[in-house]
Amino acid sequence: MIASKEVARISFSCQKDGDKQLIRETATHQLNSERYVHTFKDLSNFTGSINVSYRYLAGTPLLRKSLILFTSAGYLTIGLSSVKRKKGNYLLETIKSIFEQSSYEELKEIAVVVHLAEFDSTWCDGMVQDISQKFAHHVIAGRLMVIHTPEEYYPVLDGLKRNYNDPEDRVKFRSKQNVDYAFLLNFCANLSDYYMMLEDDVRCAKNFLTVVKKVITSREGTYWVTLEFSKLGYIGKLYHSHDLPRLAHFLLMFYQEMPCDWLLIHFRGLLAQKDVIRFKPSLFQHMGYYSSYKGAENKLKDDDFEEDSFDLPDNPPAILHTNMNVFENYEASKAYSSIDEYFWGKAPSTGDFYVIVFEKPIKINRIKVVTGTEDRQNDILHHGALEVGEKIVGGKKGRQCTTYLRLGEFKNGILEITDVEHKVLFDINCMRILVTKSQKEWLIIRSISIWTLQPPSQ
């Protein structure tokens, strides 16, 4: 069902009187200037949304207490911004992938907002018709909406600063893209607990929402601004919805300074998340062959993407320690995380170990340990074994198991064992990677993955 194109006025908190002047002034400064940091501290107090009117092209939201709410549950909103391309169009395939790769239960917690950020009304009309026909039941169910921001709300897009020696049309394209996303973020601010930023030419992994929820749960009690589920551009970037108003203001303030993905990095850093928190395998893959900018070829692919990423390890809570000589800050905990990081130790000797002591005894179904990286393929465990243990002794920092059972040995730096519960008759308190022969090469433990028979909390 296509809603009429009448302009639906949305009442938000108005910007402070000096906001427009502040935007004009701060946009002329580089993002690493002291003035910029001071200005952002002021911006960080902005919690109100931008005063703008949207046109609803497909789908109708419910209006309750001045908030836009979908009829579906508000756990995750997925935002897509799309424009007419000179070559190819992937938007319909992207929407299809979102819905097809989600189970019936997952669909209850997903809302998709498509922002047609194109001033060509004929193209918009055709695209709305295609979306409404192909995904009618999702529109009716309230989990898919198509919106448009009228051109009069956009700032000046001509005669902008040519940073990085970009040609004028490139500056205009990327500056408008920043504004497109700002208006999309602004619209989505109150729709759900979390927001996922996607591009309009991606393919999704199966059951991606379940994986995202599992990752969010694993980060409980830790501070984060952005969780990344792809290493490309602004694909698969997850935010708390309460941060969206500030991010929308931020993109508008510096829309002409640099591309959107660079601004997202600055935003994350200014909110005190210093390091990238990126999870593997990636849940989203870039599938577009032609860029939305001039139809140029864009063959970028995420080599960490896996179509079936549902099989995320449990990695129950544990204390990790090693007697190896750790290099810089590549400490033991980094091998046990699903974040894209690893443990790195200097050349290990016979008898050196890496130990995981679980908070509670567990039953394990499968174990996989990968050493080395693509860049350092020789920094693998050339001779080593994996053991599991019981009967813990020692204090918190020096806890160890008194007895161990060897499950297998590493081959080419990798070890994977299945049906562990049939090979180990006791509840497992510890797991140990043991070096069985000294090596001159350093050792990278890239990932340790453990699948349990029941949730760690049980």
TrEMBL record:
Per UniProt, the keywords (alphabetical) are: Glycosyltransferase, Transferase
Glycosyltransferase found in the keyword field: yes
Q: Where is the MGAT4 conserved region domain?
A: 33-305
Transferase found in the keyword field:
yes
List residues of the MGAT4 A/B/C C-terminal domain: 320-446
The metabolic or biological pathway listed in the UniProt record of this protein is:
Protein modification; protein glycosylation
Can you say what this protein is called? Alpha-1,3-mannosyl-glycoprotein 4-beta-N-acetylglucosaminyltransferase C
Q: Which organism is it from?
A: Phrynosoma platyrhinos (Desert horned lizard)
